[in-house]
Predict the 3D structure of the following.
Amino acid sequence: MSRILIEMKGICKEFPGVKAVQDGLFTLEEGEIHSLIGENGAGKSTLMKILYGMYVPEEGSIAVKGQTYSSLTPKQAIGLGIGMVHQEFMLVREMTVLENIILGFEPRKGGRIDRKAALEKIEYYADAYGLRVHPDKKVEEISVGEAQRVEIIKTLYRGAEILVLDEPTAVLTPQEAEQLFCILRSMKEGGKSIVFISHKLQEVLAISDRITVMRGGKHIATVAGSSTSAPELARLMVGREVFLGGSPVPAAKGDVALSVESVFVPGEKELSKLRGVSFSVRKGEILGIAGVNGNGQSELAEAIAGLRPVQRGRVVLGGVEVQNLPPRRIREHGLSHIPEDRNQRGLDRLSDVKENLAACSFTEAPLSHFGVMRWGKVREFADGLIRSYDIRPAGVDIPASGLSGGNAQKVVVAREVSRGADVLLASQPTRGVDIGSIETIRNELNRAKEAGAAVVLISSDLEEILSLSDRIAVMFEGRITGVVDASEADEEKLGLLMTGGGTHV
Ligand SMILES: Nc1ncnc2c1ncn2[C@@H]1O[C@H](COP(=O)(O)OP(=O)(O)OP(=O)(O)O)[C@@H](O)[C@H]1O
Ligand SMILES: [Mg+2]
């Protein structure tokens, strides 16, 4: 039996009004990949932040390599070889990749930062694990996938032997996720121990030696990866049977609500530049946009929402040309947008939950009356959304910064869908959301469609695209390689279009 590196026992951590972790239990053996799973708000991130010294638990003990502590500081945790890549990136956007990696651990020579030594060390890890990064780029210029690679190198740079990855694959393309798994496996071979948090049960089953399930802050079970199954894990997480899937609701197609005509847009990367994208969506239908992430989907969403310049072509919303208008004006013309990145664009973390939920409806009746806020109505409105989306904890006054990742996502989805706009542009709407809530969000998208909205669903999850869409457009290298009717689509056909096969349209 391998050596036990970490043993957390009897851990309790409360936030005002919430028992985030109760009698928490977690052990990590040397050289294992141990997944930590559970619904949104189950306490996964909190438990791991306690290990990383970011929170002090009220009760419990943390034994690391045989030494017992009642709590750790981040400095102690790093000193003990613990590294954590957070669910929400913690890099400084204005600084370069290199500066971020060495921050606080700068190698010095004659009193100055030894840039060459830093670069060599970064390149060593980059090569050893295939973590490609651009050391001199500013973090605000790099993709989320690269930001994550930077975070991983940063922990390795600080000498991590125990790596905690909080939902690392939520932001990755399937290829990048596959690469990450290779990296994790080779780290494991090299004797490193890994805690992996994810909502994707297939991934968890593929990579884990052991799996710990949490529910409502408590330890529910720890099982061997080889002796469990997705249905069993789902049942342990939710406490009831969960059914996923379902088939599309029939469309009642109305007028064209959004048309994108020969649009050219500059891209993050060469592959993701839009090169003449055209499609239209009618009221009462869901158009799915499938594709491997990084083929222009993010650029497309941003261009429609006014967050990225359109070089050439037109975006017509409800009969009005809106390309290159400010985002606010585009919203006024009838666009709701669930952005891919809930933290940068979706949520105001300094406001509370009710303010975030009501942000788009503040100036309208019944929430305001002749310019005066009616806070009673705002609470009522927010309360209704909290209930229908099962946002936890169910409090309208909770600061948005205290929400767990998946619950933050639910707030953004609830706010955007509830506006009842003519066009709903939903980018990766169920990213980071637990299986029960995926069901809720998918039902809400169907309801928006039934209420007459034109829905554009951008998702890298083929199963999601197939279960919701009426028509499916596939993007590859900044172009639409095909549009198929959902009734004629299957994974094989879409997969071919996603890799550039089939005819260009
Ligand atoms: N800083 C904080 N302030 C207040 N409440 C918090 C804070 N951090 C977490 N919580 C609350 O503690 C509970 C557990 O949150 P945690 O982030 O650990 O969940 P999680 O299992 O990581 O969920 P997810 O899958 O959505 O990321 C939630 O109810 C959350 O709202
Ligand atoms: Mg979390």
Residues 4-238 form a domain with the Rossmann fold fold (CATH 3.40.50.300). Residues 15, 18, 20, 38, 40-46, 87, 392-393, 402-407 surround adenosine-5'-triphosphate (ligand 1) (CB under 6 Å). The longest strand covers residues 4-15. The chain has three domains: 4-238, 251-334+422-505, 348-420.
